[in-house]
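Q: Entry one of two.
A:
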Amino acid sequence: MNLPPIVSPQEWEAAREQLLVKEKELTRARDALAAERRRMPWLAVEKSYRFEGPDGPASLLDLFGGRRQLVVYRAFYEPDVTTFPASGGAYPERGCVGCSFVADQVAHPAHLNARDTTLVFASRAPQAEIQGLKERMGWQHIPWFTITDDFDKDFGVDQWHGHNAFIREGDRIFRTYFIDSRGDEAMGSTWSYLDITALGRQEQWEDSPEGWPQTPPYQWWNYHDAYSAKA
């Protein structure tokens, strides 16, 4: 390995300040892209979908958990999964290694819930296997449902992983955004999930359509075990 130049503290700081200009450009570009997502047209979900959850059958509307927005990650955990690492793995002890990597990065859902947003995972494995996997891997904080119909095919995740974002107006559900492939790499933080939703982070500094819910930044932040029960 060829090392980069070794410099003085002053030279290192100057190099860092030079790169910081590009870092800030990237941050502003990311914010601008999220603003464009909030102006995407919505696609009405006309079909009914049925899932199995830890408490029995559930509709797509049920997956919202009473909140306004929903993000569904299609995780590949089922008998025909073959994406295991070189170290080995097999169903039902293991799921797809990439999807497992994503699950390991998921932040505490209480922060998303405080922004009226629910995150769930969905796979084709039965609930008994899903609950066992969650217990073994420490993923008890992730709501995880079983797909029983064409949901994955209809939303572009029957062959590959991806995140679908939805919003509801009463009982009407709309698809608002979708990312997959390398777009999934950045997912896991509260901010990354909110940035793909129609309402965004819902903070006053954001460039959002008129009438979008917004509150001052920082003021809504809390410890994950200290939000109000309604969140």
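Q: Entry two of two.
A:
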Amino acid sequence: MRVVVDCAHGAAYKSTPCVLRELGAQVIVVGNQPDGSNINRDCGSMHPESLCRLVRDHNAHLGLAHDGDADRVLLCDEKGILIDGDDIMAIIALEQLSEGVLAGKTLVTTVMSNAGLDVTIEAAGGKIIRTAVGDQNVLGAMLKLGLNFGGEQSGHIIFRDFSTTGDGLIAALQILRVMKSRDKPLSELARCWTRFPQLLTNIVVRKKKASGNSENGRISPGSGRSGTQNLAGAGSSCATPARNPKCGCCWRAAMPGC
């Protein structure tokens, strides 16, 4: 198997290529020259467009991109199409449901994940629990409820059977395991679910406080927490604090044709 790896000039610049080579992959590596200041600079999961191009150029079976500390991973299929955290969770959760190893038959994700996940997992006999944005909130729910799999659309994927935090390499290896066991390319595996219309954007705000409360599902003035609001059954919207001076907003449809 030929794999393109973008290490974002970060923590996994040696470990991920080494593990993949030990497992027999032919590895093309970029972003593996950290100098202390170039981490995430025009590379890695923050800038996955170059990964997709390299996968096509090298006729690779898979591409994977870490962020600087390698707790995240985004993938690219053999056609050069980006595979995000929602795709990864759909593939793995369905596989774990079929194997009977998804604890509580439940996937934990955040309010930012696509609504198509709910429909897909529920159709397979499972369910989804949503938390506020942040892998620490996903992990908190997993620990509280005794669950073993969860993550974020951004590529923070947590396998509690193997680790206590997000680990991009573990997530990539689990996808490779499914590709091998199913004998299917990543593009085919990613067709296991339908992504619903969704818009993510950042809005500049004048002021944010470090803490606060949401009322009736809406963000209160100065609130530091995320809030959600239903849109008359057609979907939902949510807002969550992002890096200053921004607030992250998500509009999510509840059906494919919205």
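A: Comment on entry two: Helices lie at 15-22, 49-57, 85-99, 116-123, 135-145, 168-182, 186-189. Residues 196 and 256 are 5 Å apart (CA to CA).
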